[in-house]
Each structure stands twice: as C-alpha cells, then as structure tokens.
Amino acid sequence: MNKPNVLALIDAEIERLQRARQILSSNNNAGSLAGRGVRRKRRHMSAEAKRRISLAQKKRWAARKRTTK
Predict the structure, then answer these.
(1) CA 60, CA 54: separation in Å to the nearest integer?
(2) Confidence at residue 41, expressed as pLDDT on a 0 to 100 scale
(3) Could you tell me if 43 and 37 are in contact, meaning their C-beta atoms sit under 8 angstroms apart?
(4) For the chain, what percent of residues have pLDDT higher than 90?
(5) Distance CA 41, CA 8 (A)
C-alpha cells in the first residue's frame, strides 16, 4: 500500500470512531439501545380462526338485519 491510501484509511477510521463517540456521549437517548422498546413478533391467525370470526360476524349482521325490519 502506498502512503496516500494508508492515510485515507486512517482518516476514514478516525471519522467512524468520532461518530461512534459522539453517539455514545450524547445526552439524549436517541442513539442508545437501552431506550428502545423490544419489538414483539406479530401473531398470526389460522385460517380456521379467521373462518370462525367471519361466520360469527355474519351471524351478528343477520341478527341485526332481522331486528331492524
């Protein structure tokens, strides 16, 4: 490696480390991992459960339609 390439790599590393230091030493918690909530996994509904819910809702709609007539 020649001297300019080595200096460019060192400068890039220094810049990266300065950004990391700035994030770690900042007063706000925007960059901290401790301030972030844990994202819960989404629960999936089975086809049978969707079908049961659909049928129950249709039954409610039918009952309401009968009472309004």
Answers:
(1) 10
(2) 87
(3) no
(4) 62
(5) 43
The values of phi and psi at residue 45, to 5°, are -100, 135
Sign of the torsion angle spanned by Cα atoms 16, 22, 25, 26? negative
The token duo for 52 is 């049961």
Q: What residues does each domain of the chain span?
A: 1-26
Distance, in Å, from the CA atom of 69 to the CA atom of 67, rounded to the nearest integer, reads 6
Alpha carbons 20 and 17: distance in angstroms, whole number: 5
pTM: 0.39
Question: pLDDT (tens digit, 9 = 90+) per residue, 7-63?
Answer: 999 999 999 999 999 988 886 655 555 556 788 888 899 999 999 999 999 999 999
Tell me the average pLDDT of the chain.
Answer: 86
